[in-house]
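step 4 of 6: structure.
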Amino acid sequence: MSGFSFPILPTGHLLGIEGLEPPHINALLDLAESYALLNRQGKTQRDLLKGRTLINLFFEDSTRTRTSFELAGKRLGADIVNMSVSTSSVNKGETLLDTAATLNAMKTDLLVVRHPQSGAPSLLAQKVDAAVINAGDGTHEHPTQALLDALTIRRHKGALSDLVVAICGDVLHSRVARSNIHLLSAMGARLRVVGPPTLIPAECARLGVQVFHDMRAGLADADVVMMLRLQKERMTCGLVPSSREYFRFFGLDAAKLEVAKPDAIVMHPGPMNRGVEIDSAVADDPARSVIGEQVEMGVAVRMAVLDVLSRRLRRNA
Ligand code: NCD
């Protein structure tokens, strides 16, 4: 968006929330807010990325992240190429570097990467000329998800500081949780994680996050209840007894939500396992659930990120 001054991001890439300062986060959220408004008015800015190429390079499944990067790029006028790569043939570092060489030869401007291995986008960023955006790497980070979550919270609660945010469920395997912990603690929120001991990583306590193993204790007076998907595909051994048992103790239903603040909002990054980590009645309750708005804000946040990272290209043009 023209006329919007922006503090320079520490790198020309968005590899994680860790390393960003509150002024970067606030500026990205403000810019995203203006794109959210534009989207609601049905307006686009197709000149901004005209002639630029964005490649979506996804080594893992994705519905909303890949689609919203595509929509975001299109609304800003970029040419988009979607590459889905089967993980079986590309889990060796060497192959990833070959891919990087190929992408470089194709003169890509923006590269959106999702990969099952933590650190893969950062390795690519060292090897390609394009600006790299991490769309989720292993259990490490998912920065645009944390930004869209923060924007959604800010729209409902006004500010992020001093809010009690309970992140619940499979924290151990969640890059969404990790990015949210970095972002929300940088912005002064009071963070809690809630889940069975087998799914809470030891680093939570070191990061200054309060740890709970009981939903009612963890949700008491919370402003925001953020549910996470049980990521069975990342579990190498049985970390939870059964889905039914898990839902009984850690699934969010109306009874457990009752102890949170009366105006607490309920979030989930999707895809949801209904009846496992969240009850449909809560997920679909328009008075509490902001899950649909999270998806809407995903497009706006990704437009803001593409806008900011392409400023360097626009200056050099
Ligand atoms: C998340 C992801 O892929 O990390 N989904 C998403 O991007 N919306 C969370 C998940 O897969 O559970």
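step 5 of 6: annotate
 - The radius of gyration is 19 Å.
 - The chain is about 40% helix and 15% strand.
step 6 of 6: archive
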